Amino acid sequence: MPSTRTIQILPAPADLFRAAAEEFVRVGNLAIAARGRFTVALSGGSTPKSLYSLLAAQHGAFDWDRTFLFFGDERHVPPDHPDSNYRMVHEALLTKISIPAENVFRVKAENPDAATAALEYENELRRFFALQSGEFPRFDLILLGMGPDGHTASLFPGSEGLKEQSRLVIANWVEKFDTHRITFTFPVLNHAPQVMFLASGPDKADMVHQVLEGKRTPPYPSQQVQPIDGRLLWMLDEAAAAKLTR
Ligand code: 6PG
Question: Which of 10, 32, 76, 91 could share a disulfide with 16, CB 3.0–4.6 Å?
Answer without folding.
Answer: 10
